[in-house]
Amino acid sequence: MADKVIAVDDLSEDEARAELERLAAEIARHDALYHGKDRPDISDAEYDALKRRNDDIEARFPMLVRTDSPSVRVGAAPAGVFSQVTHARPMLSLDNTFSDEDVQDFVASVYRFLGQFPDGSIAFTAEPKIDGLSMSIRYENRRLVTAATRGDGTTGENVTANILTIKEIPTELPADAPDIVEVRGEVYMAKSDFFALNAQMEAEGKQTYVNPRNTAAGSLRQLDPKVTASRKLKFFAYAWGEMADMPADTQWGMVEVFKRWGFPVNPLTRRLTSVENIISHYREIGLKRADLDYDIDGVVYKVDRLDLQARLGFRSRSPRWATAHKFPAEQAFTKVEAIDIQVGRTGALTPVARLEPITVGGVVVTNATLHNADYIEGIGNGGERIRPEGHDIREGDTVIVQRAGDVIPQILDVVLEKRPVEAVKYAFRTTCPVCGSHAVRERNEKTGKLDSVTRCTGGFVCSAQAKEHLKHFVSRNAFDIEGLGMKQVDFFFDNEDPALMIRTAADIFTLKRRQEQSLTKLENIEGFGRVSVRKLYEAIDARREIALNRFIFALGIRHVGETTAKLLAKTYGSYKNFAEAMRAAEAKFGEAWNELNGIDGIGEVVAASIVEFFKETRNLDVVNRLLDEVTPLDAEAASTGNSPVTGKTVVFTGSLERFTRDEAKARAESLGAKVAGSVSKKTDYVVAGPGAGSKLDKARELGVTVMSEDDWLEFIGS
Predict the structure, then answer these.
(1) Cβ-contact 436, 403 below 8 angstroms
(2) Which partner for 351 in 34, 198, 370, 484 could form a disulfide, CB atoms 3.0-4.6 Å apart?
(3) Quick one: which H or E segment has residue 368?
(4) Which pLDDT tens digit goes with each residue over 207-264?
(5) How far is the C-alpha of 571 from the C-alpha of 587, rounded, in Å?
(6) What's the 3-state SS for 611-642?
(7) Residues 106, 332 contacting (CB under 8 angstroms)
């Protein structure tokens, strides 16, 4: 006979606690059966009755609400703002491949890096690339504790409350799971749910959404989890971050573990060994693409064995053991209504085609990049014709527009038969459309070739460059100031009121002080308000200390992207050391210049650009004013245990026999060493293989420690 059900009003506190524990486990079991195995064993009415009983008990005993309560999974109180989560292991992006030849090159590069003959002995997994939002879900002692977006790869947004609304994601892991587990995958919205949501929005007279991917991302960032819960988001698991213990030794095995733990995994994933089978599977998935209930934009290939993944390691932003094979771009025909010029933060004049609106791949396209003057003319970097008949692009032309994923649309070719009689060749500007300064194409001193880009010579005198620099400064991977987006930068930059004007980065951090001394209050201006202004000030103050690599990237130095900024931060350690070294490097071919130019990954062009930035007094004035307001934090040393080479500079030279050059570099960097391309007084060790020449001679001349490959392996404990 079944146990008698005690009415909620008659429950004691101890009975209520036990009942809530039972209900949490029971409802979680039914969620797993319904979402994970598609075989529910109770009716919807019975399931709803369990949920109602849980809610009623929690209403009577609010102090007993559990962290794994079913009520938490359907929506908690709205959050004020998302906090940040630092990923225990970075969430890196993937390199892309676009052709069969690219895939062959990827597979060959794996064998080459490992020093093996391409004999088909290495297996790869192939899985659909879901067009969703990357997510990292952390479990401690088998309970879900946090969920964070990818963010910039190092730091993401804490969206735990919203992830708890996705019933496909377990709140608890089985007893045999490790104590610390980070499961990574993709949050997405099914096409059927997206169409149903749009039908509902249309029926209610509201604006419909553009595509499932953006809708899923927006739904996950709702401050009220109840809104997220109503959007029916889904999840596929395919990767991991920090793990206290590895439950499998292959990629395929880990996916099987995720499946056993109750996570949805993609049924189209395969384990393959030959390039032919990999490409065949890619084409098979491509044929199924239209019939799937979720959007995909390619297939991801990964080396299956985890020990080989570890040996292959990572580049600065992507793993060597994986790549994404993207599907072909989508194309459409439209007309060029006008060609406009945009001025970027480095002074680049970029032509943009204003198009007659056309839908390409489910997105309305109104603009397409034209890159530079040569692209309009139909000429490639090597002087070759880049369109079949060498057609130039003119205003009034009918053109073929291509869009691939999130890539900016571009014009592939011109339909010459439809060219208007009155269409004339486009004459590229020789002056800046914003400040009127002379616009030039620089000439490479070594090759004598003209740069493909035309640049305004106005520098910070050019308001367009100054404004775009500000937009770069506040962008996600730079200072990432919440509430100071593109529209707000335009407002502050264009404002003539001294209490509101922001023309340089330092002005951002003096805004609050200027406002306190002014009668013009930001909170009284349309589009702001007291709460948003308070949050803006808080976001600005939160960035008065910032990671060194972010600070360097935010300066907007030409050729210095995120990867280079990280290399510079790692090499110099502090902003003071970095700035002093750059000023010293003005004397080219001196020690400071050689050290900068010798950083593996920074060549002469990039080095020269950085030095030129620090030679310009206007740049230094902007930076020094900024340093009065913010503090770049010293770079953290890599966590490498008791590595004997942490912080040391190593140069590899000669024909290495025990490992490939790439593998040697990756291993040294994983131990906290800096790998340089040339020998200087700051070099600590030179590892020399057979045939070592001038670098070995230089090392002996400077008294640098020289090791054989065997000496090196013994030294690092390999």
Answers:
(1) no
(2) 370
(3) strand 363-369
(4) 777 778 878 888 888 877 888 888 899 999 999 999 999 999 999 999 999 999 999 9
(5) 19
(6) HHHHHCHHHHHHHHHHHCCCEEECCCCCCCCC
(7) no
Contacts of 200 (CB under 8 A, 6+ apart): none
CATH of domain 96-326: 3.30.470.30
**CATH number for the domain running over 547-633:** 1.10.150.20
Residues 310-342 as b or e (16 or more Cβ within 10 Å = b)? ebbbbeeebbbbbbbbbbebbebebbbeebebe
**Measuring CA to CA, which residue among 698, 696, 594, 12 is closest to residue 708?**
696
Name the CA dihedral angle for 119, 122, 125, 131, rounded to a multiple of 10 degrees.
-80
Q: Show the 3-state SS of 313-340.
A: CECCCCECCEEEEECCCEEEEEEEEEEE
615-641 pLDDT tens trace: 888 888 899 999 999 999 998 765 556
Q: Do domains 547-633 and 649-716 have the same CATH topology?
A: no
What span, in angstroms and rounded, lies between the C-alpha atoms of 10 and 129? Answer: 53
Question: Catalytic: 425?
Answer: no
Question: Which one of the listed residues 4, 37, 51, 129 is annotated catalytic?
Answer: 129
Q: For residue 195, what are the CA distances in angstroms to 129, 220, 272?
A: 21, 18, 35
Among the four given CATH numbers 1.10.287.70, 2.60.40.10, 1.10.150.20, 3.30.230.10, the one describing domain 459-543: 1.10.150.20
C-alpha 12, offset from chain centre:
51
Nearest to 155 by CA among 239, 242, 231, 90: 90
